[in-house]
Amino acid sequence: MDIHKFILKAADITEMPGEKRIHFLNPDAVRINKSLGDAVGLTQLGVHIISVEPGYDTTEYHKHYYEEECIYILAGRATAIIEGERYAVGPGDFLGFPRGMAAHNIVNDGDEILHCLVMGQRLEQDVADYPDKDMRLYRNSGRWDLVKLTDISEPQRIVLPPDEPL
């Protein structure tokens, strides 16, 4: 077994080019993403170092119903928006979002690049709301379905007495 495939040395991480990613619902959510988890073969846990330029968001304001995620600020200062409230965050701060608990985003309103370690589950199924866009994402076994929250309705149950004719 090649033990080196389980270890990413600091120099290797520094040399990783990363990928520029733009969120599909937020053109202001632009980041350079280095997927550490993918590099060592993780399939159930996403582990990324992201870099966000001043003036950009880390993602679109959202909440997961099944997946948990967390963020550790490595460098830079920003504003975390959690359930509509704004909080200053900086190096050494940790944010954790249990499933179904709180909509969130981080805005780099500082004057330097924001670097974060971002980790989250990779479940086969998840549901995520994007409250500012009035959208809900259903993800199931690789398929993504995006719907407007206002188009979702609760099915009506029809209950009749047992002797009522149909």
Description:
It is a single chain. By secondary structure, the chain is mainly beta. The protein has one domain (about 5-125): Jelly Rolls, CATH 2.60.120. It is about 5% helix and about 45% strand. The protein has two helices and 13 strands. The chain has helices at about 10-15, 35-40, and strands at about 20-25, 25-35, 45-50, 65, 70-75, 80, 85-90, 95, 105, 115-120, 125-130, 135-140, 145-150. A six-stranded antiparallel sheet has the order 1-2-3-10-5-8. It has a four-stranded antiparallel sheet with strand order 4-11-12-13, with no helix packed on it. A three-stranded antiparallel sheet has the order 7-6-9, with no helix packed on it. Strand 11 and strand 12 form a beta hairpin. The chain starts with 9 loop residues before the first helix and ends in an 18-residue tail after the last strand. The mean pLDDT is about 95. It comes from hydrothermal vent metagenome. This is Cupin 2, conserved barrel domain protein.
What tags apply to this protein structure?
metal-binding, single chain, 13 strands, globular, 6-stranded antiparallel beta sheet, mainly beta, Jelly Rolls, 4-stranded antiparallel beta sheet, about 5% helix, about 170 residues, RmlC-like_jellyroll, GPI/OXD
The share of residues in helices is under 10%
Most strands sheet: 6 strands, antiparallel
End-to-end gap:
67 Å
* Computed Rg: 20 Å
Using the alpha-carbon principal axes, give the shape: globular
Superfamily (CATH H level) name? Jelly Rolls
Number of strands: 13
CATH architecture classification: Sandwich
Number of helices: 2
Helix vs. strand class: mainly beta
CATH class: Mainly Beta
CATH topology: Jelly Rolls
Hey, roughly how much beta strand do the residues contain?
over 45%
